[in-house]
Amino acid sequence: MSEQLPAVETVFFHERDDDYLVVVRADEERRLRGILELKETDAGPRPRRFRVKRGSGEEPRQPDQLVELVRTAARIRISEQTSSAARDRLTAMLDAYQLEAVQVRTCRYCANAGRYSPITSETAVKADRDYICRDCAREELDRELAYKGEFTADAADRLEELLFETGDLDRITDLLQGNLDPELTKFDTISATVEDVEPVATADLTLHPALEQRLTDRFDELLPVQSLSVRNGLFDGDDQLVVSATATGKTLVGELAGVNRALNGQGKLLFLVPLVALANQKHEDFEEAYGDAVDVTLRVGASRINDSGQRFDPDADVIVGTYEGIDHALRTGKDLGEIGTVVIDEVHTLKEEGRGHRLDGTIARLKHYCAARGESAQWIYLSATVGNPEWLAERLRARLVEFEERPVPIERHVTFADAREKVRIEKRLVERAFDSKSSKGYRGQTIVFTNSRRRCHEISRKLEYDSAPYHAGLDYGQRKRVERQFGDQELAAVVTTAALAAGVDFPASQVIFDSLAMGIEWLTVQEFEQMLGRAGRPDYHDQGTVYVLVEPDCVYHNSMDMTEDEVSFKLLKGEMENVETVYDGPAAAEETLANITVAGERAKAVADRMVGDVPTKHAVGKLLEWEFIDGLEPTPLGRAVTEHFLSPRDAFRLLEGIRSGQTPYEIVGEAELADEEL
Asked: Which pLDDT does position 504 carry in this prediction?
């Protein structure tokens, strides 16, 4: 049975078990696929059988047809993966017909599937001691990803990018099994940057003698951001927004201004922070640095007794407090005395949903408090992460002092693992860091960030090197013990929630993100940048290292609308978000009620001092409707609501429970369930 042979450009031979796959191509398409068997004759190897593939079957052809095909081909190619013995037999057969073949590297997977896919050293991907084309490598990676779970497009794209960069499929699949090859896990390096700022000599500063002596004993020169602040009117009483990376020394800016004014009798210093853990550390720092020269007290909530057992002293020279602690004093009419300086640390909190409006209100109410007493306090706002510093400085009526130097480079890594694998990886990373020393003689220590207190303890228990959980649920003594042990390099790691993100001073070389959530919310770019900025201190380390451990298709609460792998690349690639306070109806009502409680008829003037635009008129209407205010005075109900920082929703829930005769336990239980459902 004779059949017209196809036009031929290339005939490709690839060794199988005891025969050869033959692929005929023309016009960049496969025209024929067949199987060739050779036989030994006195004249050498010759075709024995030639079968053409038809669907799932095969059709026998005359061996001479193969010879005719090969004679008409413009190119004859033999797969480089063919064994030397099989290649020699095939070459001997072709020589008998005065035909020459060239060896080429081809994709083994394609060849086994009857396709001809030449590959070069640039396009070949190593797979199981062989080489395949990029299309087959991509298909194999897709199969592996499907087996591991749902990966988002960004995560898959990142792995494909690594696949083609390395040219090694096995290394990428190992990465999915928790391999920590830094060449594979590395996402990028944030370079160290140096800004040329002429330092200010501490001896040239005109300060109160008690402060001047302390400063010159510690430093000959101020750090660059401190020098910039001094040159921009720090000691002239000018308000400043200081934006600079973690560990660049911006906290001392607020300390110098506030303590100097306090010592000179120009009013006390209020140093405000977002978290109790941070307030406790700052209180301890102030006591240690200035305690013999000024009185220092702590205000972290409604109680007059803080968790170190000390009584809050409103007449102290320095009050360290949380935002809510000071705001509670204002809402309840406490006399804070003469205020000379207010430092707002972590001012980017203004953008946080649920909390930003309270900081906005606190700042405005404090400004009202000072103005009502005829005082002109100096305001210093500090942040490492602001996307719109010029706009924010204008809204705060402050001079912008921005310093963009990063003292050490930070190398960022990302790898994929489920919750169980994460702990195994964290153990290895912690040990690897602690077993090494920087050129400055310090061991590598790690901060592990996770999303719950329970997970903190779980991870800490499973790390074999000494570690400790650290979160706001620990008492004062426990936190201080952990801080001391970490500072003395007795701990390889601390495992924490958001408590450290806001700046508690742990000199860590490495940060690991066990989770990209805090509680039931994903991190923002600001929070992520703040947390990774804890890695690497210039006086301790040569560089910082960050590992982001990502669980594909993972969410920590049903309210989350993105998965962890989606969030990871959003954060790694994300630009700094603008710091703005946005008001919805409940937030506007809560802050307007607080403003009326503090300022009465001057509540509108307080709102005008706020960063966000508060719809005061509408809020007043709702407060009247709810009977939280009577005119521009709080009712007893409204006063109770604002003194306990209740949102309107929470207040109505409590009222409904009380009026229906529920017990306090039932009311609290329903509130917890309602919050879970949000």
From this structure: 61
DSSP letter assigned to residue 320: E
- Residue for token pair 């990774």: 532
pLDDT tops 70 at residue 71: yes
DSSP E strand boundaries for 274-351: 296-299, 318-322, 339-344
- For residue 196, the number of C-alpha atoms closer than 13 Å in the C-beta half-sphere is 0
Residue 128 to residues 40, 109, 140, 596, Cα–Cα distance (Å): 33, 11, 12, 72
Identify the bridge partners of residue 221 per DSSP, sorted by sequence position. Answer: 201
Burial class (CB in 10 A: 0-12, 13-18, 19+), 248: buried
**Is pLDDT above 70 for 477?**
yes
Residue 575's alpha-carbon distances to 194, 247, 525, 549, 569, in angstroms, are 21, 21, 7, 20, 11
What would the mean pLDDT of 505-521 be, rounded to a whole number?
89
What pLDDT score was predicted for residue 608? 95
Chain-wide mean pLDDT for the chain?
A: 88
* Cα separation, 674 vs 656, whole angstroms: 14
Residue 205 CA, chain-centre distance (Å), reads: 39
User: How many of the other CB atoms lie within 10 Å of CB of 29?
Assistant: 9
Strands (E), 491-620: 493-496, 510-513, 517-518, 521-522, 544-550
What is the distance between the terminal CA atoms of the chain, rounded to a whole angstrom? 76
- Separation CA 316–CA 147 (nearest Å): 62
Burial bucket for residue 658 (CB in 10 Å: 0-12, 13-18, 19+): exposed
- Indicate if the pLDDT at residue 5 is higher than 90: no
Distance (Å, whole) CA 15 – CA 86: 7
Residue 7: its pLDDT value, please?
Answer: 67
Percent of the chain with pLDDT over 90: 52
C-alpha–C-alpha distance, residues 272 and 318, integer Å: 11
**pTM, rounded to two decimals:** 0.73
Report how far apart, in Å, the C-alpha atoms of 6 and of each of 14, 22, 72, 363 are: 20, 14, 10, 83
Q: Is 340 exposed, middle or buried (0-12, 13-18, 19+ CB in 10 A)?
A: buried
Of the candidates 86, 153, 79, 166, which has an alpha carbon nearest to the alpha carbon of residue 118?
A: 79
| Segment 375-420, tens digit of pLDDT | 889 999 999 888 899 999 999 999 999 998 777 899 999 988 888 8
Closest CA to 113 of 169, 172, 30: 30
Residue with tokens 């003698």: 209
377's tokens: 């306090």
Which residue's structure tokens are 């509540």? 603
Q: Phi first, then psi: what are they for 247, rounded to 5°?
A: 70, 20
pLDDT at residue 70 in the model: 92
Average pLDDT over residues 523-540: 87
Q: Which tokens in the block code for residue 96?
A: 């008998």
Query: What's the confidence (pLDDT) of residue 674?
Result: 65
SS3 86: helix
Separation CA 139–CA 633 (nearest Å): 69
Judge contact between 75 and 12, C-beta under 8 A. Answer: no
Q: What angle do CA 596, 602, 606 make, to 5 degrees?
A: 80
Q: Which amino acid is at 139?
A: E
Count how many residues are written for the chain.
678
Rounded to whole angstroms, the Cα distance separating 192 from 544 reads 10
